[in-house]
Amino acid sequence: MYDSTCYIAQEIAEKIQERNRCQRNGENSTKLNVTIRSLLQNLKEKIDQLKDLLLRSISTRQITQLEGDRRQNLVDDLLTRQRQLQASYKNDGTEPDVIRSSLMAGGMTRGVINPWLLEETEETSRLGFDELKQHQQRIIQEQDAGLDALASVLSRQKQMGQEIGNELEEQNEIIDDLTNLVANTDDKLRSQTRRVKMVDKKSTSCGMLVVIVLLLIAIAVVAVWPTH
């Protein structure tokens, strides 16, 4: 809605510029005046709707206070522009440069605090109405081309992110399989270690038994051996 409201304000500025040109050339500007009055009324209604929507969004906490302040500045700029356009329509002393600046505002970046009060450059000050409009259209086309390029970059980054995510999932599966293999190997190693200890213990017991038997045999032999 804000974008459409800005477009209406820009259209009003163009119509006022065209109306003034017709008046200078002695042409009939009645239809243009009717159109401008209708657009001014539409602009007022749009701004009122924006104010109501903004108040509702802030009161219901649909947006943060910082975002609310930013949007309030934009609405205030539209209100200022509405008064300027109304004054320009009534021809009560408003400078023509204000209208020209509004024509250029539509092609500028939106990050500025007051997009309606930008100063006109030396390049555009020498342009007529039609040339100024063409210049503005070129700016919009350049911005569209830049947005298309940005969209392409973001699309590639998204694709790369998805590929990285898939690779991470595969690596996680490999790590899980390796962890299970290590755990199984560790269990088998512990089991084999216990068996070796049991065999070693049995071997030691058998060896002691053999020694004892041999000693008993030796004692028996000595006991029965004839003494001279």
UniProtKB/TrEMBL annotation:
Predominant place of localization: membrane
Subcellular location as annotated: Membrane
Record's signal peptide: none
Key words, A-Z: Coiled coil, Membrane, Phosphoprotein, Transmembrane, Transmembrane helix, Transport, Ubl conjugation
A GO cellular component entry from the record: phagocytic vesicle
GO biological process, one term: vesicle fusion
Domain T-SNARE coiled-coil homology: 137-199
Membrane-spanning intervals of the chain: 204-225
Coiled-coil blocks: 33-60, 168-195
GO molecular function: chloride channel inhibitor activity; SNAP receptor activity; syntaxin binding; ubiquitin protein ligase binding
Membrane topology field: Single-pass type IV membrane protein
InterPro entries per UniProt: Syntaxin (IPR045242), Syntaxin-8_SNARE (IPR041875), T_SNARE_dom (IPR000727)
Family: Belongs to the syntaxin family.
Its biological purpose: Vesicle trafficking protein that functions in the early secretory pathway, possibly by mediating retrograde transport from cis-Golgi membranes to the ER.
Protein name: Syntaxin-8
